[in-house]
Every structure is written in structure tokens, then in C-alpha cells.
């Protein structure tokens, strides 16, 4: 995966829960277009983290948790977003915390719940504020698609989902990578 939407794993309880953080910085290019200043309407820039990227951060956090449960032998892909609610915008200078838990897991995949919390460094005394929740389902690709068997699709032998980017993230967070 080329784009990482989490910066660090701060807690991992195998097969149960993972907590990751994402620091939002004005240096991130996508914030300059979302939303750019509009001088014709006298509107200043309003940089916010797009909700779709927050949800991707949830997917990466929960996906790593599900993949870690089987030592990354499975190709774990997002199969379905059952529900997603975000009540507040995340802006530069804030930190998002994703807390993913596995609700159900079997050979076919897993269902997860991710709580999203926001820490505003300008109001540090307030601590983290819960701003959202996402429910996602993940599929073990090779188990469900049958590789070249059932569907005729031939998936790469290597685990293309958990590439070097995720391995680096885990290593720099102090988590051994098999």
C-alpha cells in the first residue's frame, strides 16, 4: 500500500484489539485542496482531513489487526463497510486515534468495530474526544475467492496486501513482523 493513513501502532492485543494514531499536519498535500481558499467568494482556506481518508485509516488499523491474527499468512481485504459515522472534522494540529476490535473471526474473515477519537493539541486538557465509529467486514481473499479454483482468478502468491509499508509501520512501532 502506497498511502499510509496511520502513523504508529500504540497498542496491539493479538486477535482482540489494536490502537493506532494518525497525526494530521498541514504538510499533507490533500489538505490544501480540501478546502482551498476561494477569493472570488472571500472564503479563507479550511483544511480538513477528508472523511474518506479517516475511514481508510480505520480500515488500515482493523485490517492489520485481522492480518496479524494469522501472522499475515492471509490476504486480508476490506469486504464491506456496514456503518460509518463521523461527527466532527479533523484539522491540522490534531491527532486521530483508531481503536479497532475484532467482534467475530473465522476462516472466511472478520467483522470489526473501530472507534475514532480526536485529540486537539490546542486544547490538550480536554484529552481525546470520541468523534466516530465504523463497522467493517474483512475477507480472507484466498479462502473466499478460491484462488485459481472457484473463480478462475489467479492471485499473486506473495501477500500483496501487507507489503513493506505496513511491515515498516509495525517494526517502527515495536511490533515483531513474521
Please explain how this structure is put together:
- The chain contains 4 helices and 6 strands.
- The chain has 178 residues and is an alpha+beta fold.
- A 6-stranded antiparallel beta sheet has the order 1-2-4-5-6-3.
- The longest helix has 19 residues, at 51-69.
- It is globular and about 55 Å long.
Short summary:
The protein has 4 helices and 6 strands, in the order E-E-H-H-E-E-E-E-H-H. The chain is of the alpha+beta class.
Outline the secondary-structure elements:
Elements: E1 8-13, E2 17-23, H1 30-33, H2 51-69, E3 76-86, E4 94-106, E5 109-120, E6 128-140, H3 141-145, H4 164-172
Antiparallel strand pairs: 1-2, 2-4, 3-6, 4-5, 5-6
The CATH architecture term is Roll
Structural class: alpha+beta
Label the overall shape. globular
Major sheet: arrangement of strands: 1-2-4-5-6-3
Helix content: 10-25%
User: What number of domains?
Assistant: 1
Annotation, overall tally of beta strands: 6
Compute the CA-based radius of gyration: 18 Å
CATH class: Alpha Beta
As residue ranges, the low-confidence spans are none
The number of helices is 4
Order of helices and strands: EEHHEEEEHH
**If you consult CATH, what is the topology?**
Thiol Ester Dehydrase, Chain A
Strand content: 25-35%
The average pLDDT score comes to 90
Main beta sheet? 6 strands, antiparallel
Amino acid at each position: 500500500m502506497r498511502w499510509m493513513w496511520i502513523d504508529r501502532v500504540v497498542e496491539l492485543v493479538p486477535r482482540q484489539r489494536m490502537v493506532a494514531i494518525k497525526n494530521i499536519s498541514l504538510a499533507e498535500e490533500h489538505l490544501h485542496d480540501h478546502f482551498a481558499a476561494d477569493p472570488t467568494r472571500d472564503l479563507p482556506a479550511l483544511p480538513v482531513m477528508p472523511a474518506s481518508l479517516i475511514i481508510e485509516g480505520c480500515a488500515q488499523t482493523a485490517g492489520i489487526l485481522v492480518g496479524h491474527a494469522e501472522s499475515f499468512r492471509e490476504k486480508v481485504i476490506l469486504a464491506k463497510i456496514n456503518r460509518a459515522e463521523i461527527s466532527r472534522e479533523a484539522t491540522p494540529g490534531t491527532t486521530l486515534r483508531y481503536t479497532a476490535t475484532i467482534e467475530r473471526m473465522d476462516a472466511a474473515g472478520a467483522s470489526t468495530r473501530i472507534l475514532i477519537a480526536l485529540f486537539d493539541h490546542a486544547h490538550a486538557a480536554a484529552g481525546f474526544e470520541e468523534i466516530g465509529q465504523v463497522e467493517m467486514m474483512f475477507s480472507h481473499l484466498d479462502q473466499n475467492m478460491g484462488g485459481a479454483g472457484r473463480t478462475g482468478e489467479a492471485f499473486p502468491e506473495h501477500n500483496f496486501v501487507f507489503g513493506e509499508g505496513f511491515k515498516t509501520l509495525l517494526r517502527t512501532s515495536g511490533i515483531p513482523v513474521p
